[in-house]
Amino acid sequence: MAIKAYSKAKDGNKKLSTNFRVKEFACTDGSDPIFIDSELVTVLQNIRTHFGKSVTITSAYRTPTKNKAIGGEKYSQHLYGKAADIKVKGATPKQVAAYAEKLLPKKGGIGTYSSFTHIDVRSTKARWKG
Ligand SMILES: [Zn+2]
Most exposed: 25, 51, 79, 85, by fewest CB within 10 Å? Predict the structure, then answer.
């Protein structure tokens, strides 16, 4: 339940869980540091373990500049290191969202898009289709 700052340069290869490393959460603009909420890592690792297939993070932490450039929401959970857009090999975004629902029954954000699933660990509950 804590947001931590990591140095991409120093901690990029550091393991956050069995299958995830710090660099996978980096903003795609290459900036350093990277903010990551440990609760998000726990949820993603549970998804990885459940499906038993590789999980690709297409976007996790975003700087305000990057978020604005790609048209992200003003108060996007990506800005706080609390969100990740993921693709699970061999599973549809709908299947991933259905399992995430079990992990976050009363809280968090789950957005189902055509090619990925958005997962975040906000304290309130939000569900949507992209
Ligand atoms: Zn997202």
Answer: 51
Copy the structure tokens of residue 17. Answer: 């869980």
CA of 126 to the centre of ligand 1 (A): 12
- 56 C-alpha vs ligand 1 centroid, how far in Å? 13
Fold of the domain spanning 3-129: Muramoyl-pentapeptide Carboxypeptidase; domain 2 (3.30.1380)
pTM above 0.90, yes or no: yes
Q: Where are the domains of the chain?
A: 3-129
Mean pLDDT of the chain: 97
